Amino acid sequence: MTRLGILACLVLGLALGGQAQEVLTRAAEVRGLPPDVALTGVPVELQAVVGFIESPGGGTVFVQDETGGTFFRASRRVKSLKVGDRVLVKGRSVPGLYLTGVEAQSYDLLGSGEPPVPVPAGYEDLATGRFHYQMVQVEGIGRRLSVPEENRSVLHLALGSRVVEVRVDAPLPEKQEEWVDARLQITALAAGGINDRRQLVFPYLRVSDWSDVKIVKAAPALEALEVLPAARLLRFDPARMEDFGHRVRTAGTVLAAFPDGQVFIRDLTAEAVVPSSPRLKGTEDKVRPAALALRLTRPLSLKPGQRLDVAGFPNMDGFSASLVDAVLVKEEGGAAEEAEAEPVEVTVKEILEGTLDADLVSLEAELVDAFRTGSGWELRLVSTEMPMRALLPTREGGDVPRQGSLLRLTGICRVESSSDKGFRSRPESAMLLLRGEEDLVILREPSWWTVQRLVGLIGLLLAVMAGGLLWITLLRRQVAKQGEALRRRITHEAALEERQRIAREFHDTLEQELAGLSLRLDAAMTRPLEDKAKRLMETSRHLVSRIQTEARNLVADLRADPESVTDLPAALNELAERTLSDLLEVQVRVEPPLPALPVHVAHHLRMIAQEAVTNVLKHAHASSIVLGLKTQDGELCLTISDDGQGLEQTSTQGQAGHFGCMGIRERCLRIGAQVEWLNVTPHGTQVRVTLPLFSLTDHG
Questions:
Q1: Which pLDDT value is given to residue 282?
Q2: What whole-number distance in Å separates Cα of residue 174 and Cα of residue 344?
Q3: 141, 314 Cβ separation under 8 angstroms
Q4: Class of 3-112 per CATH?
Q5: How far is the C-alpha of 549 from the C-alpha of 584, rounded, in Å?
Q6: CA–CA dist 241, 687 (Å, integer)
Q7: Residue 453 backbone dihedrals phi, psi, to 5 degrees
Q8: Superfamily per CATH, domain 565-699
Q9: Using one digit for the tens of pLDDT, what is the confidence trace for 467-480?
Q10: Which long-range contacts (CB under 8 A, 24 or more apart) does 680-684 make?
Q11: Which GO molecular function entries does the Swiss-Prot or TrEMBL record give (predicted)?
């Protein structure tokens, strides 16, 4: 024996009272073995009696002793065994689907005898698994017979208020009607459906043939049954206590018949007095025939208005009694009067009183929603009292009305849920089962202004408004841009006109006066003069010539359009050529590459260079000027260098009557540049203007 097997036996022994057993010898010990312990293969040596064999020659045998029942599986077919044989089974435990059994290594026939004595059982014994895989004896009322497969049949047996299946390994008996509504005593194996969690889903019974089913009390003939009004089903009646669970008979007019065997009738055997609600004092009692739901054992071709005589088993169907497993006693030849099958005009409030369950009613309500199901359409309705739903069978090529339609619906009223207040049960929700397309009538089409369309229109208006605001914004930007361009053009034209006016004034006044002064100096120099006076006249003559040159340059600059200056190197070369003379050498040194310059930036840099050159001519007494232009360390650098006498820093801060350096600073400020005046070695001055390249975009 392995250590694991010994441990399993110790665990079982502790569970059974602390006495460890090496070999299990009783059925109760085997069936009580936990699944995890049973997996270890605990040794079993069991003497028991065969109670049921899975099938003739099958491999699973159900046995029991005086302690209980279990099963064993043989490695070979058990053709030699039969019910009542006493066997000795040797093997090891297996968990089984629900309780532990034996994997037989061998079995020996010890003798034959009587089958195991069955244990009396009720539904609760079967549902709890108390006698599972054990022979039991039950007593109940036969409800109906069915054939699930060839050579097998099922008897549906009522045990009190519950119905269980008795599965018989044999075809249906010849006289099937004898078993229905008869009180039966059945000796069978207790079994059931098991899920993967080792839970008993539902119990059922197994018998080998119909010899194990005995009729204790025969069923009464259908024609002998008293016709009972539908309103009296499942009511308290001391005189009918012994008949509880048996079939009853009733008659009525067909209100609706559905393909699944569900039929609704309105009982006309007697009128049912339905007392009004005690809450509604002063109202009169309402008198209406009671309606009843039937579930036939097999569907019949029935039409509304047809009269029926049926028998079935009473059953509480949700809120009111119904008949199940019903059969037709007889079909009356004539049709009912038209008024007998007419729908009852009701409101939702009357439906919630509960007296109209299973009856044919007519109701007005508004359609809220609809969607297709497997059997047709489900309609969601709203009335003044509460919402409810209706089921409409599938329509060939049809469609449901649009949402918001006012409908008249005719159908079977069914209470879906209820609640208890004190001792009284009241409906909480109900539904309608429509019989067909003719039960749905459109009283009023919905307004074109549905919620969806209104939301869509609002969305469209919002989109149009958003588009209009966007268009207005873009238009304002365009107008502002055009206005700014127009303002700049007007300002530019005004500035150009003013510059040209100043240029004319300079030309007509200052330049003419200088020309006249130059002529007088030339005439004076033709006369005999002393040397000192002659040198003074020559110096004055040169000064006047230089002033004339500067005046002409100023007039030329004033007449030039600032917006026309786009090429700064070319402008610097032009400045150099204009300034070059016998006494002064001017050079331009440009180091490419150079960035593209905005027009106003190029203009300001050109004017800064010209002002610096003018200052050199006036004050530096230089012999050469170098104009430099290059890019260095992310900056555009403009330099004006001379070899003159230099200058003091204070002279660049502006003096009375001198505005050149001040104008240079102002121009640098406008384009975002920096300016420095530097003394160079051995002598001379350099004006250095630096402009960050990233600022060119901003100024552009």
A1: 40
A2: 46
A3: no
A4: mainly beta
A5: 14
A6: 127
A7: -70, -40
A8: Histidine kinase-like ATPase, C-terminal domain (3.30.565.10)
A9: 999 999 999 999 99
A10: 680/641, 680/646, 683/643, 683/644, 683/645, 683/646, 684/620, 684/622, 684/641, 684/642, 684/643, 684/644, 684/646
A11: phosphorelay sensor kinase activity; protein dimerization activity
Per-residue model confidence (pLDDT) at position 650: 55
**High-pLDDT (> 70) share of the chain, %:** 86
Q: How far apart are CA 444 and CA 401, in angstroms?
A: 10
Beta bridge partners of 267: 252
CATH 3.30.1330.40 fits 348-446, yes or no: no
Place of tokens 């005995």: 214
Q: Which of 252, 286, 258 is nearest to 270 (CA)?
A: 252
* Of 60, 63, 62, residue with least CA distance to 49: 63
Measured distance CA(32)–CA(100) in Å, rounded: 7
Nearest to 77 by CA among 91, 61, 57: 57
User: Which DSSP category does 616 fall into?
Assistant: I
Provide the pairing of β-strand 262-267 with 248-257. antiparallel
Closest to 663 in 3D by CA, of 700, 612, 620: 612
Say which CATH topology domain 222-274+285-342 has: OB fold (Dihydrolipoamide Acetyltransferase, E2P) (2.40.50)
83 — pLDDT class (breaks 50, 70, 90):
very high
Q: Is 266 within 8 Å of 341 (Cβ atoms)?
A: yes
CB 45 within 8 A of CB 115: no
Residues paired with 239 in a beta bridge: none
d(CA 264, CA 698): 89
